[in-house]
Amino acid sequence: MKFCKQFGVLAACMMTAEAMALQVNVRNSSGEPVESAVVAVYGDLPQRQMETAVMDQHDRQFLPQVLAVQVGTKVTFPNSDDIRHHVYSFSPAKRFELRLYHGTTAEPVMFDQPGKVVLGCNIHDSMLGYIYVLDTPAFAVTDVNGRAQLDVPPGRYRLQVQHPRADQLTEQAVAVGADEPGSVQVEFGRLAPDPRSVGDKTELEALFD
Amino acid sequence: MSKVSYRFKLMLILLGLVVALQASSYIATRVVIRDAVVEEAYRELERGSELFSQLMQTRAQQLAQSVSVLTDDFGFKEAVATADRATIRSVLVNHAARIQADMALVLDDNRQLVASSMNLPAEQYQLLRQLEPVSVDSGSRYSLVVINGTLYQFVLSPIMAPLQIGTAGIGFEIDETLSAHLQKLTDLEVSFVADVAGQPSYLSGTLTSEARNQLMAEKPFAHSGEQSVWRAGDMLNSVVVLAQTPQLVSAVLQVPLAHALKPFAVLDTQLLTLAFSFFVGAGLIAMFLARSVTRPVRELAGVARKIADGHYGSPVRVYGGDEFTDLAQAFTRMQTAIAEREQEILYQAEHDSLTDLANRSQVFPRLHQTIDTCQAAGQQLVVMVVDIYKFTQINDTLSPETGDRVLRAVGGHLEALVGEQGRALRLGSDEFLLLMPVAGAAQALEFTEQVVRQFDRTLHLDETDIKIELNMGYAVFPEQGESAELLLRRANLALNQARQSHEFVCRYRSGWDEDHLRRLQLFADFKQALLNDEISLYYQPKIDPRQREHVGAEALIRWVHPEFGFVNPEEFIAVIESAGQISLLTRWVIRTAVKQVQQLRAQGIELTMSINLSALDLLEDDLHSYISKLLHEHELPSRCLCLEITESAIMQEAERSMANIQRLHELGLLISIDDYGTGYSSLSQMKRLPVTELKIDKSFVLDLDSNEDDRQIVKSTIELGHTLGLSVTAEGVETEQSRDWLVANGCDILQGYLYSKPVPAREFGHWLERYLRGGDI
């Protein structure tokens, strides 16, 4: 298995050599950039070298909040806080539990099924993280400006965009030219509000609304 | 007592005032307090409702916390994440038990039941779908839900892992225990009602089944939202809406007015007790007050009654220094004054003002008293009536003042004579009564002698010395009578005897009283006797021995009493004279005699009728007019009547008698001097009298045959009569010898048994006929 992983990483490096950049701009219906949208491209793509992904926990938050990995990627959960965390997921794509740990003592977790894995900390309810396990080597997560850049060889692809706060995913076909970097504008539907931002009201206050 | 006493009225007024005041103040206080209490009860209920709401909220918070304990449990989340219903159910049962929930369930994202701690059909949970979905945004949601007929406080909470993987619901049954607990905390009746499928239903509560029915009948929902507190019947109600969805669930909070008024009832009782105590107290005070006002009045009224009864010694006990005391003092003074005045009046009533001796009114009381004393002591009692001989002469000849002085002196002496043990009373004018207890007959005599000695000397009056003599009559108790009346009458009889006999002192002798009584009887029977013809006239002829046809008669009165038989005319005429009735009798005699004369004249017989007049008749100034009228009526000449008058009759009030005789004479009547020779006729007077006849008393005639002296007297009298030109009549002629002597000596008229005794009218008529025809006599 170890070998395989390393091979994957190598393949990715190979592909990179002749890849072209695909710029994806994700915006919502009101034209605002959508951050943390997972953009994936499906098609005839070269294998990419498997790397170990990191889902850090810093300042009682998952960092990054949204992590995209290819199927079969191992993800480590280092704890940068000076307190313990108890990371778990009940998502069907990956059920796991890292019982209270400190630093980098936790074993990496293999995500071998595609799907959305919701991460939580059992002792810190406000911690919420997502790992999107994708069955494709080409993917990226939009930045603050709603931009993501994918390096794919020219060709025709299926572009899939999803977001933790959107029920639906968006799919569209894209063509990447050989000469010029592609740029895709994706308009996204309404997003649900960030669950972490509704902590102002206490539970008790909400009780009698 | 039909009259309502002043005291009662006063008390009634006072009590009425108190009752009115008490009642009004009690009612006012009661109304105010009751209103306040009811008002307070409303506020209590409002406060209770608020408290109830808070309690329910607190409980919901506690429940929510309990739910969060469940939903935060990692194992629970893990179990839910497994989506294994059996596992989830077991977890729910376990956790429900842990947090003491009555129901725990998990719903999926579509709010379909995943699992429940209770084994109920799925449709029972349908209501839960109608609840607002919960999310991390909404947090826990609280509601009341009726599941399977049971009311639950339901808290729905999202299961976050870390995103929502479902909804946990925890139900806490609202049961009787909770209701009771809430009742205890709020002091209100707590009822939970729900509108289940449009049908109100009582779910739980503290009410009795009866009260539940009543409450449900009132449709408590109708009030929700309008008015938080209202009153229905005896209950104050408040509705707190607990949930609008999926069903309307309310809590009805109640407080029985009776319960709210319970403290008031105590207060009310106290008020009532207070009012009653006031009433009783006021009653006592009113009674006391009324008593204090009316007691002196009644006291005084009592004294006044006693005064009216003649008791003047009653002390007037009224204290206090107020007007009543003044009145009481006035009463006391009045009592004394009345007593003194009455004493004085009584003294004056009982005593003679002149002599200061007890007066006539005291005769019997003193007599009875003295008799009793003597009887008790075994003594005798001299009852003596005294009068002053010829007292009128003293008055007339000296002066009434002297008379008074004499009476005073006599009274004083008599009083001194009887001393301490006896009594002296003044009976009237110059009469006194002496009562003297003595040991025996000898001492009685001694006493009378003492009296005689006392007055056998000159009385030294202020200016004059007077010698007086007393008439005294007495009777002795018990020998001559035991009763006061008898003794007094007998003493009076004795006095009369003393007066008449000039003995001065006379002791009653037995028989006098009987005579006296007989006289009284005669007097009483006199008038009736006239009417009954018991009294009639008898006639005795007066004969002229020389001339047969010259005949006269003397009318003599006769009384045949039904009891006493023949009554001596002298006796009853004396009685009638003393009673002042003689003129009545005289006039009857004259009238009867006149009728007889007329009757005889009708038969052809003319005669002169002699009628006796008493001394008192001569004092009647109208006798002549009476006789004149009578003669006129009977058409008779005045010559047919001859009035016979005794010497002594003329001597009394001689002038007046003489004048009247003169009048009778002028009328033409014949006047005759009767019983001549027995009195002290003065010849000078005789001479002045218009007399036609002299009638020699029969005492000289009866013994004429044997007595030489009588013959001398009669002879000289006849001569004297003839000398004066008078006709001389002799009465009492009983023998022929006497008749012959009288005729021989010139006597004009003869009268006596020799001719005829006095006979009744009819018989006299026959006798006359016989005599005039020349028959024998």
Automatic annotation (TrEMBL), chain A:
Sorted alphabetically, which keywords does the UniProt record give?
Answer: Signal
SUPFAM superfamilies the UniProt entry points to = Carboxypeptidase regulatory domain-like (SSF49464), Cupredoxins (SSF49503)
Q: Which domain of life is it from?
A: Bacteria
Signal sequence residues: 1-21
Gene3D superfamilies recorded? Cupredoxins - blue copper proteins
Please give the name of this protein: Methylamine utilization protein
UniProtKB/TrEMBL annotation, chain B:
Highest taxon, organism lineage: Bacteria
Q: Does the keyword NADP apply?
A: no
What InterPro entries would the database entry show?
Biofilm_reg_signaling, dCache_3, EAL_dom, EAL_sf, GGDEF_dom, HAMP_dom, Nucleotide_cyclase, Rev_trsase/Diguanyl_cyclase
User: What SUPFAM superfamilies does this protein map onto?
Assistant: EAL domain-like, HAMP domain-like, Nucleotide cyclase
Domain called EAL: residue spans: 519-772
| Occurrences of domain GGDEF (ranges) | 379-510
Ranges where the HAMP domain occurs: 291-343
Q: Which UniProt keywords apply?
A: Membrane, Transmembrane, Transmembrane helix
Task: Enumerate the transmembrane spans.
Answer: 271-290
Q: Does the keyword Transmembrane helix apply?
A: yes
- A Pfam family the protein falls into: GGDEF
Full protein name: EAL domain-containing protein
Q: Which organism is it from?
A: Gilvimarinus algae
